Amino acid sequence: MQRDAARLLYGNAVAGIMISLLTSSFLVFAFSYPRVDPLKKMWWFGMFILLLFRFIDVIWWKIKLQNTEFDGKKSITHFVIGANITAIMWSIYLVYCTNQVNDVQLTTTIIAIAATAGGSATVLAAHKYTAMFYPCILLVPGSIGLLLSEEKSLHLLGILGLSFAFVMLLISRKSANFTVHTLFLKNENSVLIDSMEEKVKQRTQKIYELSNLDPLTRLYNRTAFLEQLKRVTTKSEKQFALLFIDLDGFKKINDSIGHKAGDDILRETANRLNQFTSNTQLVCRWGGDEFLVVFAETDEKRAVEKSNKLISLLSEPHTTENSILSVGATIGIALYPNHAKTEDRLIQLADMAMYYQKKQMRSAVCVFNEEMEELFAYDLHLKNGLTKAIENKELRLVFQPIISSQTLKVAAFEALLRWQLKGKDIPPDEFISIAEQYGLIHEIGAWVLNQACLEVKNWNTEQEVIVCVNVSVIQLQDDNFISIVESALSENLIPPELLHIEITESVFASDLVVITDQIKSLQAMGIQVSIDDFGTGYSSLSAMQDLAVNMVKIDRSFVNKIDSNGKAIISAVMHMSEALNFTVIAEGVETQEQSQALLNLGVHYFQGYHYSRPLEIKNIPAYLEENQNNT
Ligand code: C2E
Ligand code: CA
Ligand code: CA
Description:
- By secondary structure, the chain is of the alpha/beta class.
- 62% of the residues lie in helices and 15% in strands.
- The protein folds into three domains: 2-191; 222-368, Alpha-Beta Plaits, CATH 3.30.70.270; 398-417 and 439-630, Alpha-Beta Barrel (TIM Barrel).
- It contains 22 helices and 16 strands.
- α1 runs antiparallel to α2 and α5 packs antiparallel against α6 (152-212).
- It is rod-shaped and about 160 Å long.
- The structure holds ligand C2E and calcium ion (2 copies).
């Protein structure tokens, strides 16, 4: 508002200065010609210098300040000082004239000064007090002088001057109030417009965020990132690396500790990614615990180096509310333009490299190569085949005997799944992991349980033989698992004592609370539970105690090394079995020597090629009979 007032004052200033210059020159030189009163000459010179200064001030303002965010108050002060000194100069002139000049000159002077005073009402309206008192300063001292003069005829002029000054005071006040009010309204409107603009800006930002940013991490979402990536791929041919990052162990934390901790980890991961990459526009939360990052202008070697550093950064512990948690990260890299030129394909290839790396070893980097595409295609081929394997009757079970070390009699059979896809045997190690990855294991696992229960009935004519069924952790985590087991037993009229469930040691890496509950439920039903591949993974003594499994199957890698350090481990397991009260089975017994050594160590049961390979169903009755007769 101050600035607007200054603009008005300075806007009218040139006209005011010119009028003052013309009037003063006219009054001083026109009447006294040819001989000019030297005092008047001095006054005029003073006035001229003053007006010159004011003129320079105006021009300075117009050139330098007018279009800037200048200090309005300071400019007004400049202007007002100039205007008031001008008024005082006029006042001095009038007072001097009242004593010096003849009537005609005096009247002309008063008229000229009164006219100047009249004009000031509008010219100075933007500064109320200057506008009001400018005419007074101009006229009042001179008019009083006239009133006090001895010549009566001049008294009337004095009264006229005073009245005019008074009327001008009122008029200027009114006009100044009006101007100030107008300026106020104008400013209020602009404040309103400014705040509306601010609101519109905020809304636009909000809409932008909603459609482009992931609400949790505030990283780019899929759509926005793809757009950015498209821009990069169309704009230049410069190579860059696209990283597909998948957190390791995130799901476990999310499931066991809770979503709040999970969210904290995702947010912190986003912070670390932003911190690591200079261009935050090329970081994206692709979904769940997957992130995409672009390393601009980076070759393969550099991308791998940077990715390794990134893995270290992302794997640093997270401190949440009341615990310190750790996740890892596996990274797949695809390079532009070497591997692909479109953004969709790049992401697909980086994803493939990540997937491949996860299978090999977590928390490591892998650059895409064509071989992976073949492996990936093969996995997809298996997955597609598996979805129809039951329907197409391509699955069957074989059974491997488990022998008592004391009596050498068959105590149980382990059911092992076989799959023939278009006449070709696919090893279970290959297809089971695919079934697990794509969620097919639930249906297949239920089929296995049912088939195993169906078969076990046929063997239990003369002796009690148990069937052991492998169950993957994913099945165990399913809420319906217990009822699936129940119906397999009841539909085949099998007592629960004849069924054993084998779970691999990898259960220890999952949510133990859920697993322990499921195991307790199975045991409560009368089913025994064993830990498979013992010694290869993550078991801890305390977890073993909590789980209270019935049996432990020592992995065949230890049996294999029984001559060297395998022996010590097996002997330690035997000690544990006494303390924790579980039975021990040795897997992969291939020779008589191994069998003897295991017997010496006190192992309860043997399983392995030395006794029998897994048997086709039709061969089991004969095997059982022979086993019976031999012992
Ligand atoms: P596992 O449960 O440890 O099964 C034992 C594996 O060792 C079987 O391989 C068996 O053929 C093999 N084996 C037995 N004795 C010997 C031996 O003396 N020497 C050697 N070298 N190997 C021996 P298989 O049938 O290929 O099964 C591999 C794995 O696939 C199994 O390991 C099990 O983890 C999984 N699997 C098999 N069937 C099923 C199933 O129905 N469900 C689930 N979830 N997993 C299954
Ligand atoms: Ca097994
Ligand atoms: Ca095993």
